[in-house]
Design goal:
Layout (H helix, E strand, L loop, with lengths): L1 H46 L17 E4 L4 E4 L21 H8 L20 H13 L2 E4 L11 H13 L3 E6 L12 E6 L9 H16 L7 E2 L21 H6 L8 E7 L1 H14 L31
Parallel strand pairs: 3-4
Antiparallel strand pairs: 1-2, 4-5, 5-7, 6-7
Length: 317
């Protein structure tokens, strides 16, 4: 009897061990499968390629084209249809200082030699000073007619502004506003003039002229007149120490001579008053003539009215 009970107990123990091992065998694959499944999901998320972010700007938004693929985007920027406007100014040459130009505009002596001259008036009156300050802020000069002053037998405002542009290495842009005739209209439209001589690169004047003509014609539909080296009036009073260089100039003269001894290289357009101001602002930005930090000029202390050349003065007043 005892032997039978012991045998039955051993059978129960074997059955229990077999069931436990089978249960462990069944559960183990489920756990391993779930672990592998989690690892594969995590790897898939980590290995998913990130799409590039397209940065939009005011310039690129109109030029950039987007090409979408299966998993990426490619930005295609076409080449510009028209070439950019290129100009340059000579640096290794004589140029006045901006501060000296401001000084001679008040009749004060300049530190740098050859900045001013007896034969070329530069001193500005109150109205000319206002136009001069406005031109520095706007990038181009506006004058009434030819800006000629009979008291000085010259145009001090044009001389001073041209010297300023020579000091900065920029073309002189001037809008001549013609006075109306007796009938209330204007015989001819206003004249917009661009003087390239302050650049002091005579060999490149023609190329800059062609590009500038094409640019103005394309942007505003205005055709320019024939460009030329402006010759000085033979009847004007010129001192012995002034020599105006025209077509018989050489390379050394552009490097060493002051601007009032060099003939202007003039481009001109016949424009309306509105067109003249619009194109003048455009050219002022194109050649970087605008002085954003330019303030109203303040008269230095101790400056008194000067005498003209005919009265024993220096001709700078």
């Amino acid at each position: 009897m005892r032997l039978a009970n012991a045998t039955h107990l051993l059978s129960l123990i074997r059955i229990w061990n077999t069931a436990s091992s089978f249960d462990a065998f069944v559960r183990a694959p489920v756990y391993q499968t779930s672990c592998l499944s989690r690892q594969s999901i995590s790897f898939t998320l980590a290995s998913t390629p990130l799409l590039p972010t397209t940065i939009h700007s005011h310039t690129a938004s109109s030029l950039a084209a987007t090409k979408e693929g299966d998993d990426q985007k490619t930005i295609i920027i076409p080449e510009p249809t028209s070439p950019s406007f290129v100009w340059s100014a000579r640096q290794d040459c004589w140029r006045p200082d901006v501060r000296d130009v401001e000084k001679i505009s008040y009749g004060m002596p300049a530190k740098k030699k050859k900045t001013g001259s007896r034969g070329v008036p530069h001193r500005l009156n109150e109205d000319e000073r206002r136009s001069f300050d406005q031109a520095r802020r706007q990038g181009f000069l506006q004058v009434t007619g030819s800006s000629w002053r009979s008291q000085r037998r010259d145009a001090p405002l044009l001389n001073t502004y041209r010297s300023l542009m020579d000091a900065r290495g920029r073309p002189a842009i001037i809008l001549h506003k013609l006075s109306p005739n007796s009938s209330g209209g204007v015989d001819n439209g206003d004249r917009l003039v661009v003087d390239l001589s302050p650049l002091r690169f005579p060999d490149e004047f023609e190329s800059v002229e062609r590009a500038l003509r094409e640019r103005i014609s394309t942007e505003f539909g205005v055709e320019s007149q024939v460009s030329e080296f402006a010759e000085e009036d033979s009847t004007s009073e010129i001192e012995d120490d002034i020599e105006i260089l025209g077509n018989d100039r050489n390379e050394d003269d552009w490097e060493t001579r002051p601007i009032y001894q060099i003939s202007p290289y003039v481009l001109s357009w016949e424009v309306s008053r509105h067109q003249g101001k619009q194109i003048g602002k455009f050219l002022g930005q194109l050649f970087d003539n605008v002085e954003e930090k330019a303030t109203k000029s303040k008269k230095p202390k101790g400056v008194r009215p000067g005498k003209g050349r005919r009265h024993g003065g220096y001709g700078i007043g």
